[in-house]
Every structure is written in C-alpha cells, then in structure tokens.
Amino acid sequence: MRTDPAGPTGLLDPLDEAILRELAVDARASFADIGSVVSLSAPAVKRRVDRLRERGVIRGFTVRLDPAALGWETEAYVELFCSGSTSPVVMRTAVERFPEVISASTVTGDVDLLIHLRARDMRHLERVIERLNAEAFVARTRSTIVLSALVRRPDVQGSPEP
C-alpha cells in the first residue's frame, strides 16, 4: 500500500520542498541534477514532480526575467484609497489594464489596495500614478519608491509550520 509522501495533512514533505526549491532556482534543471542535490534518482524526482503537478502544487514552468535589463528601472508600491465601497472585482478590472502592475492585493487597514509596479523611469512612474488616480473609484494614492531590493525569494518557501 502506497502512502502520499505529503502525509494526511496534504503538506509537502522535506523532499518535495527540496525539489521545489531546486526548480524555483532553475526550472530547466534535469531530474538527474535535482536528484543529485536531494539524494534521489532521476526517476524518483520525476515521479514526485509529476505528483506535484497533478496535485496543483506546480502550476507551470516559467522564466524569470531581469526587469532592469528590459528597461523597467523604477519600482514602487502604491497604496490606493478608494471612495465609497469598491469591490475587489472593480479594483482588479481597473489595475489589470496597467502593464506596469506586478501585483495588486486588497489589504487590511486604512489602505484598500496595495499595488506593486515597475516603470521605465520616474517620469513614467508619475504618469502611471496619475492614471491610477484618474480611476473613478480612487480617492487618493500614496507611493513608496524602492531604492534597493534587498531580499527577493522565489515562490517556494516550504510548508508553513503547524
């Protein structure tokens, strides 16, 4: 009888976490290369990766680009304060139109929406913020410009502690 290596809780076991960390660093790494790091054979790594894909833990494989090398030199966080009661659907629909938006999240506190964005330069950033302010539901914005990105982690951080 085979058991799920994730156990009854569905959390990842240490080997799955190690495999995911390796894939997050280099999604093109071979199963053999990953196996040599996590002490498994290539077929065992493949079985685990297939199982992680089936479970939806791995949604796809992608490339990580260097935004600065592509001309996106300025980075900022913009807080949006909404007028009235604005639904998350309305907010998402509005900010999805901005190619500069990296992520947008509703948050707790006085701020309604936190946006992480990139722009070519300060002038471009100013234009983006002006366009955000022009959205009908936006009462005001507050911006914070990133000086140095000190820690950037891939999406894999392992299972949360119980």
End-to-end distance: 27 Å
The number of distinct structural domains comes to 2
Computed over alpha carbons, the radius of gyration is 20 Å
Structural class: alpha+beta
- CATH architecture heading of the largest domain: 2-Layer Sandwich
Overall spatial form: elongated
> Helix share of residues?
25-40%
In CATH, the homologous superfamily of the largest domain goes by the name Lrp/AsnC effector binding domain/regulation of amino acid metabolism (RAM) domain
- SSE series: HHHEHEEHE
Unreliable spans are 1-9
The top-level CATH class of the largest domain is: Alpha Beta
- On the 0 to 100 scale, the average pLDDT is 90
Instruction: Enter the CATH topology name of the largest domain.
Output: Alpha-Beta Plaits
Give the number of DSSP strands: 4
Beta-strand percent range? 15-25%
Major sheet, described briefly? 4 strands, antiparallel
